């Protein structure tokens, strides 16, 4: 971030943001939207609690960053399966349109705000 951008997003005195956390059940899994525009105009943050299988699509996102924060399972992309566990971090670039997470795990995912 450039210095002016840092100043633009700094609040003095501190103001507690009003978050609009949303939860969505998908099968046995849960998607929690923690931060998104307009709260944060630059990015969105989600928590994915996977119980069994969770299939997701990229939508308008340019990429997705994900970190496994608990549990273990697998990530399937384009027919390839990757083992993932707590501590695994990965990027789903723009050309990945859909993916499936399987197992019992929790991830934090973020992406630039949709345009």
From TrEMBL:
InterPro entries: MPI_cupin_dom, RmlC-like_jellyroll, RmlC_Cupin_sf. Signal peptide: none annotated. It comes from the Bacteria. Residues 38-111 form the Mannose-6-phosphate isomerase cupin domain. Pfam families: MPI_cupin_dom. Transmembrane segments: none annotated. This is Phosphohexomutase. The lineage of its organism: Bacteria, Bacillati, Bacillota, Bacilli, Lactobacillales.
């Amino acid at each position: 971030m450039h210095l002016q951008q840092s100043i633009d997003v700094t609040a003095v005195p501190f103001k507690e943001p009003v978050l609009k956390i949303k939860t969505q059940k998908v099968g046995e899994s849960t998607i929690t939207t923690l931060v998104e525009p307009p709260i944060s105009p630059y990015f969105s943050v989600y928590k994915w609690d996977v119980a069994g299988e969770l299939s997701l699509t990229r939508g308008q996102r340019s990429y997705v960053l994900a970190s496994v924060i608990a549990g273990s399972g697998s990530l399937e992309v384009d027919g390839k399966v990757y083992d993932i566990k707590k501590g695994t971090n990965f990027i789903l670039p723009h050309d990945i349109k859909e993916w499936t997470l399987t197992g019992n795990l929790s991830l934090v995912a973020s992406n630039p705000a949709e345009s």
